Every structure is written in structure tokens, then in C-alpha cells.
Amino acid sequence: MTVIGLTGNIGSGKTTVGRLLHEEKGCLCLNADEIGRLVAEPAGEAYRKLQEAFGAAYFLADGRLDRPKMAELVFHDTDKLALLNSIIHPAVLLHLKRAISEIAAHDPEQIVVVEAALLIEANYLDILDQLWLVWADDAVRLKRVMARDGVSREQAQARMDNQMPQAEKAKYARYILHNNSGIEDLKRELEDVWQDFAGKA
């Protein structure tokens, strides 16, 4: 079984690539960002530690994490962000390891894609066989984030600046998929990468 890590900075289009790998190549995709939300739910592995670390002020009346309030806190406080990540990331990693083991036991030929914006930063590299990076130029990503999230240029730029630079992530990548144009160009680029990957598998 091959485990591909799929990453990309905000506005790069990594989620689109993940969808294409699932729909057109039959890959089984595990979205680490979605798992991160699950582990923070009341029944999740990280829930109790989050309560202990941040207190009742960051939870809603029904017990769920107040995500907007938490996001506002950690966006302006790097120490709180580090604390949040130190709770969430190990819980997600444990979840991913279990899922990969179960898939390998039932279908050892399955290609698994682990998608996350912070694959490198969260120290998930050890569970991957290789890393693919979706790259889009900064100006392109800025326009996409502004349009998608309805935020100002300054807000979009702040979100971009809060991530590891693409050039740094590229050092870890087996393949880089460029996504500056439309979906058809992206599909062609993905097909070229896939053919090279399949030929070496």
C-alpha cells in the first residue's frame, strides 16, 4: 500500500486535487483537517484536553468547541496556537495511523491519500511514503482566498503569511502540481504526475 501526503497552502487547490484523485484514480482520501474537527467534538480524543487547556469560555452551551472564538484567539497568539496544535495534531496522527492500518489489513493494494494543509508542520511525514505539493503563485492564491472567503486583501494576505512558505514545502515534495490556471490544465498536470507515479510504483 502506498500512502501519499497531499498538501498545499491556502488557495492552492489541494482539496480539488484530492477530489480528482478520489473520483478519477480511485484513491481513498483521508482529510486530516476534517479529522481535526472530529477529535475536537465532545466524543473526540482531544476534547477533554482542550477543555482543560482553554476553559469553558471557549465552548458553546451544548458543549461543542466555539470554533470562531478559538480561531480568533490563536490567530493573534502564537503561544495559544502552539498549545492548540500540541493537542490536536497528536490526536489526528493517532486517528490516521489507525485508519491506515485498517485499510492496509483489508486492501493492501489501496492507494491512500492523506490531505492536510499542515502535513509537514504537524510532523505527519513519518506515516507517508511520499509527499505531493499543490502550488499556486501568491497572486493567484490571494485572489482565490478573497473570492472564496469574502475577505479583504489584507485579511487574505495575513492568512497566507501565517503558513510555511511554498518554497520551503517544496523541499519535501516528490511531485509538485502547479495550479495557476483552470481545472482542465490542472487535470492534465495531475495526469502527467500520475503516469510517472504509476510507472514507478
Task: Give the key terms.
about 200 residues; about 10% strand; Rossmann fold; 9 helices; alpha/beta; 5 strands
Task: Walk me through this protein's architecture.
The chain has 201 residues and is α/β, with parallel strands linked by helices. The chain has a single domain, classed as Rossmann fold, CATH 3.40.50.300. It has nine helices and five strands, in the order E-H-E-H-H-H-H-E-E-H-H-H-E-H. The protein has helices at 14-25, 32-39, 47-54, 67-76, 78-106, 138-149, 153-161, 166-170, 183-200, and strands spanning 2-7, 28-31, 111-115, 130-135, 175-178. Helix 4 (67-76) packs across helix 5. The mean pLDDT is 94.
Strands of the widest sheet, in order across it, are 2-3-1-4-5
The CATH superfamily turns out to be P-loop containing nucleotide triphosphate hydrolases
- For the CA atoms, what is the radius of gyration? 18 Å
Low-pLDDT segments = none
CATH class value: Alpha Beta
Based on DSSP secondary structure assignment, what is the total number of beta strands? 5
The residue-averaged pLDDT reads 94
Layout: helices, strands, pairs:
Blueprint: E1 2-7, H1 14-25, E2 28-31, H2 32-39, H3 47-54, H4 67-76, H5 78-106, E3 111-115, E4 130-135, H6 138-149, H7 153-161, H8 166-170, E5 175-178, H9 183-200
Parallel strand pairs: 1-3, 1-4, 2-3, 4-5
Helix pairs in contact: 2-5, 4-5, 6-7
Quick summary:
This protein has a single domain (2-200), classed as Rossmann fold (3-Layer(aba) Sandwich). It is 55% helix and 12% strand.
